[in-house]
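hey all, quick one before standup. I had two proteins in the batch that finished overnight and I want to keep them in one place so we stop losing track of which output belongs to which input. First protein below, input sequence then structure tokens straight from the run.
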Amino acid sequence: MTKGLVIFDSSRGQYIPQHFATALKISRIQGIDSEDIETLKKGPEDNEYYWDVWDRVLNNAFHVDSQGNTWRFYQDMDLWMYCDELMTTKEKKEFFGDDYENEED
């Protein structure tokens, strides 16, 4: 089973949040509200809240699959969807790199 997959690659640049809001089935994603989605849909131009909203989405949005696994979003150039519960400590270190905080340390 895949434990992480690229949703949008870095070629979309600053428009990744906008594509997230317009291309994904948002109704299947929890932890975000409709106002935030509307803000992202407008894109980054002349949108002072775009990056704050995107940060909130990355910190709070998730999807629960049919097996009950929780998938979260992570951006490091590309936008990823990952399932922490399915990853080993080694895989987490490889996936998150310097952003990984080992809770057991």
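OK second protein, same deal, sequence then tokens:
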Amino acid sequence: MASRRVSDPDNRRSRQRPATTPEGRENQLISKAVDLAEKQLEDGSASAQVISYYLKLGSSREKLEQEKIGLENELLVAKREALESQKRSEELFTEAIEAMRTYTPTKVDPSEYPDED
């Protein structure tokens, strides 16, 4: 009988096909780097830089900075929406003014209409 291969989840990951997009590939590499850092932390072989990086991620200051960045992104989205709304309002005002110009009465010569006495 042929011997069976033992399925190793870590080995299976390394055989994963590369992503077809640059963003996907970047995400795969990031995932591998995080997995390696996790292994190093577990077996005690992590460098001081790796340890410092993950300590920083867990700090309250980092959490506040991430929250600040999130709020800044929301503010930028709101500003963009306000600018788009303002642009649309200006377009509507322009259209309204043009429409009103077509309804402006022309001067009528009084001699065309006899007075009703």
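Flagging for whoever picks this up: Residues 31-103 form one domain. The chain is about 70% helix and 0% strand.
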